[in-house]
Each structure stands twice: as C-alpha cells, then as structure tokens.
Here is the input.
Amino acid sequence: MKNLTSAPVLTTRRLILRGPGKSDLPAFTRFMTTGSTLKAQDETVSEEQAWFGFLAGVGHWHWHGFGFFMVVDAKSDQPLGRVGLIKHSNWPDIELAWHLFEGSEGHGFATEAARAVKAWAVDDLGVARLCSYIDCTNSRSQAVAKRLGASTDGTRAPHESEAEIWVHPVDTD
Here is the structure.
C-alpha cells in the first residue's frame, strides 16, 4: 500500500498509525456515508463529498505537515478509523481528532491512538496547544477526551456552535 503523504508510522501495543493510501478510500467512504455515529449527528455525506474529504485529508499533510493517520489493527491489518491533527484555515487551534469506523468503538482504540498522536505532536512537531472540538451531545468522544486529560469550561468553538472546546494538557519539559 502506497502512503499518499509524508506521515510517519507510529505504533502502539495494538495499533499501527500510518498515512492514508488509496486502498483506505472504501472504508473511509463507507464510514462517511453510512456510519451510525455520523447518522446520529446528521453529518453523513455523499460518496462524492467523501472522496473530496479524503483528498482534503491527504492535502492537509502536504500543507501543514500533519493530518489524520489511518488507524490499523496491528494483527489483522484492518483499518479501524482515523486519528490525527487538523487545522482548517479559520480555526484558532490545532485539533486532536478521532473518528472510529463502524464496529471499532468501545475497545480503547481512539484513546490509544490519540495518546500516540499527541506525543508525536508535542515531541516531534513542538505543538504547544492542542484542542478537540467535540459536539456537546457526543458523550463517547467526551469520555475519550477525559481519558486523555482534556477538560472544557463549556466554551463553544467559533466555527461550530454545537462543539465545545476541550483543551489537552501539553507537557513540554
């Protein structure tokens, strides 16, 4: 599988985090068009929109030098979701974000992968501030943020009125 980005490969006890490749598009498209978590938030998209989103994710790596990693099960090589750093042009901070594909939730994969991405962001990129923009009704993502040590005071993200800003502690010593 050819990596379409400059993403490094990160590993954890159970996971491989790598840049996206063409073979990841079907799993990503399935998630974006039919995923139950996206349906619950009324955020599913068309196949064409998913394709554009996938390409935007690849471009994010080229523009910023960071982006979404594909999270892959180290034993089965099955894609489980995406975890990474994003910063769109109108966002005040870099976001640490996670999206798990159908059937991958509830196993600690998001937390495990996000810890690895956070360490890479701080240690290798020198990121001094990380936030997560989480829908105020998304209790599962809020639980992941809490396990990562993030907290919120309820302030809403300027670009998304339903999302609270969760700030991650960043140790730079």
Summary: The domain at 10-168 is CATH 3.40.630.30 (Aminopeptidase).
